[in-house]
Inverse folding.
C-alpha cells in the first residue's frame, strides 16, 4: 500500500496563533483543573484556534438551527475520502460504518459485541489509561502484553497473552492503540500483519483505537489496521477529534472489516443517538476541508518535538526522550532524575508545570511522565525551564 505523506501547507502554524492570556479564558479541563500559575501540558487538548472550515460549518448549522439528531453517512464518506487520499486506503466501506458517541464509548460497544463479562482484553502498556478504566468497568479482565524496550509491539509477549486469554475456551479481544499513545509509535504494515495472524490463530478479536491516525508526522506512514491482510474480522474506531482539536464536539465512527460487518450490525441502533449532530457536522468539515490546516499543525508539532529534544538536552539531559512519529504527545523517561515513581507530581508542585503522570499508563509507566507538545514554542520553552528549576 502506497502511503502519501502530508504536504507543506501555506497556512500559518496554529500553535503560534494564541497568547497565553487568551488561552486562559478557556473553560475546558486543560485550563480549569489547575491554578493559573501552572502551565498545563497534560491532557490531550491543543492550544490552537479551530480550523476555519470547522468554525464556518458549525456557525452555519447554528444560524440554521440545525441542532437536531445525527443522520446520514456524510461523516463516513468524508473519512473514506480522507483515508483514500491520505493513507492510500480504499477499503473503508461506508456501509460498514456506524456513528458512535466518541472513540472510547465506541470501544466499549465494540468490545460488548465480541466479548462477554469475565472475558479478557489484552492491551500494550504503557498505554492510554482509559483502556484500563473502561474495560474494567465493563466487567472484563485486562491482560498486559507490554511494549518492548524499543517501544514497539512485542509479538512474543502478545502471543503469550493471547494464549492465556483464550484458555478454557473463553472469548478474548485485543485493544490495539494505533498510533500508540503515549509513545507516538506508528505500527508498521509488517507488525500489524503479524498481529492479524496471531489474532486469527488464537481467535482473538482486534478492536483498534485509531483516533491519532491523522497526527502522523514527517515521512512516517499510518497503516490502518483493517488494511492489512488477515484483519478482515477487525473493528476500528476513528475520529477527527484529536487531529482537529474537537474533543468537546463528541462524535466518532466505528468501522468494520468485511468479516466483522455482521458484528457491527448487531450494535444497538440507539448508540448512534449519543453523538452530537453538530459534532458530526464539525468532524465532516474537518476531514473534507480542513486538511491544509492539519498540515500546518503537523509542521508545528514536528518543529516542537525537535525543540523539546533540544531543550531537554540542554536543561534536563538525564531525561530520556525518543520522539515518536505520531501524536502531539511526548513520553519522558525521568527515572534517572531520582524523583521517585511519579515525577509529574514533582514538576507540578515544585515547577508549576502540569504533565500527565506515567503511573496510570500501566506497566512501564513508573518514573515516566507524558508531556503535551501542542503548545506554542514559547510555552514549551518556559515549561522545560520550570522543570529544570524544580530540580535545583
Amino acid at each position: 500500500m502506497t502511503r502519501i505523506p502530508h504536504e507543506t501547507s501555506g497556512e500559518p502554524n496554529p500553535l503560534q496563533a494564541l497568547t497565553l492570556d487568551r488561552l486562559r479564558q478557556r473553560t475546558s479541563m486543560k485550563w480549569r483543573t489547575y491554578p493559573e500559575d501552572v502551565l498545563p501540558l497534560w491532557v490531550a487538548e491543543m492550544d490552537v484556534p479551530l480550523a476555519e472550515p470547522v468554525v464556518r460549518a458549525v456557525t452555519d448549522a447554528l444560524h440554521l438551527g440545525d441542532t437536531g439528531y445525527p443522520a446520514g453517512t456524510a461523516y463516513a464518506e468524508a473519512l473514506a475520502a480522507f483515508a483514500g487520499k491520505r493513507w492510500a486506503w480504499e477499503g473503508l466501506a461506508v456501509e460498514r460504518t456506524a456513528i458512535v458517541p466518541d472513540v472510547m464509548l465506541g470501544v466499549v460497544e465494540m468490545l460488548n459485541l465480541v466479548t462477554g463479562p469475565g472475558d479478557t482484553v489484552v492491551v500494550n502498556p504503557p498505554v492510554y489509561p482509559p483502556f484500563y478504566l473502561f474495560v474494567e468497568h465493563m466487567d472484563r479482565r485486562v491482560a498486559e502484553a507490554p511494549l518492548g524496550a524499543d517501544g514497539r509491539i512485542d509479538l512474543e509477549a502478545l502471543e503469550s497473552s493471547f494464549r492465556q486469554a483464550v484458555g478454557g475456551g473463553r472469548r478474548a479481544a485485543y485493544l490495539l492503540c494505533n498510533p500508540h499513545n503515549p509513545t507516538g509509535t506508528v505500527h508498521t504494515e509488517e507488525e500489524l500483519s503479524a498481529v492479524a495472524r496471531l489474532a486469527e490463530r488464537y481467535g482473538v478479536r482486534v478492536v483498534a483505537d485509531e483516533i491519532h491516525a491523522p497526527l502522523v508526522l514527517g515521512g512516517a506512514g499510518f497503516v490502518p489496521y483493517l488494511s492489512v491482510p488477515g484483519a478482515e474480522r477487525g473493528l476500528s474506531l476513528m475520529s477527527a477529534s484529536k487531529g482537529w482539536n474537537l474533543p468537546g464536539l463528541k462524535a466518532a465512527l466505528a468501522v468494520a472489516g468485511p468479516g466483522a460487518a455482521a458484528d457491527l450490525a448487531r450494535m444497538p441502533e440507539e448508540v448512534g443517538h449519543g453523538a452530537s449532530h453538530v459534532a458530526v457536522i464539525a468532524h465532516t468539515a474537518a476531514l473534507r476541508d480542513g486538511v491544509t490546516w492539519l498540515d500546518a499543525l503537523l509542521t508545528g508539532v514536528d518543529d516542537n518535538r525537535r525543540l523539546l529534544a533540544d531543550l531537554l538536552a540542554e536543561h534536563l539531559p538525564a531525561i530520556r526522550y525518543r520522539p515518536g512519529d505520531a501524536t502531539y504527545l511526548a513520553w519522558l523517561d525521568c527515572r534517572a532524575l531520582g524523583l521517585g515513581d511519579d515525577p509529574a507530581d514533582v514538576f507540578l508542585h515544585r515547577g508549576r508545570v502540569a504533565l500527565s503522570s506515567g503511573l496510570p499508563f500501566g506497566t512501564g509507566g513508573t518514573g515516566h511522565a507524558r508531556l503535551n507538545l501542542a503548545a506554542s514554542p514559547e510555552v514549551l520553552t518556559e515549561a522545560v525551564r520550570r522543570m529544570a528549576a524544580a530540580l535545583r
In short: Residues 99 and 253 are 5 Å apart (CA to CA). Confidence is low (pLDDT under 50) at residues 1-6.
